[in-house]
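== Sequence entry ==
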Amino acid sequence: MRITTPGIRVRPDRYDRRDELAALDPATEYVEIYRALSGLEFPWDIQQALSMALFRTYAVPSIGRLLAGTGEFTERTQKRYDDTGLILETVLTNGFEHAEGRAAIRRMNQIHRSYDISNDDLRYVLCTFVVVPLRWVQRWGWRRHTEVEKVATANYYRELGRRMGIRDVPGTWQDFEALLDAYEAEHFGYDPGGRAVADATLDLAITFPPNDRVPTALSRTFLLALLDEPLLDALGYPCPPAPVRVAADAALRARAAVVRRMPVRTEPFSLERSPSIRSYPDGYDVRELGTFPAGCPVSHEVRGADPAR
């Protein structure tokens, strides 16, 4: 897949795209803005942040316990990681109205409806998609988000939440932050299932580049150093020593300084083509991703059909 961003020109200056995005309307052009943020401005940062967001969901016992109970996130961790990322990328790449984007949302909704998931938990997970990347870029991005970009990010996920049937979705990025913080303060806690899923995800994460280029113990400690203490406590992980946390923070800040001086990115990032996605070397149909507890309802003889039919 190739991400296209109508109206966004590529020019030599590092901050030109920021200025062009600031001229767009986040109330109506949020897909274009968020697509540019994910594919061109902060692709690595947003992917890392979304991976870190997974750990936050595991620390809510009702979510961690459910994920562990399916066995999917502990026994087929790579495939579940791939499926989640590819479904979300299909929506973003194609847009909400495109047949492929609609098919991806339908597949996601089919998966969720197969399990007993509360609206509150679904809404919290949606909050992590907004808040964790915003906070990551605020701390470790090569530049900070503009207000237009924050509003567009919230609006993009508001629309996704609406199409997922999630009720009472926050109205602003500030509301997303407030809900996430309040939900975590009330619900974070240790559960063996959540810890098992976190362990499996951590084991997978250390196989991704550049983590795979350093000793396993060092890579694992580095990743844990990026998690805050309430999250570590809820998952039952020891807090890495202060010097390790300082070093991890410094490494990401150094990376940001390097990226700030690099040429403008012109080729949009594609998760589908990244080395982290390993389950589908011969391609995939978004209608066949994810779990099918009651059996796959897709006709494997006809691929690419409009999901609205």
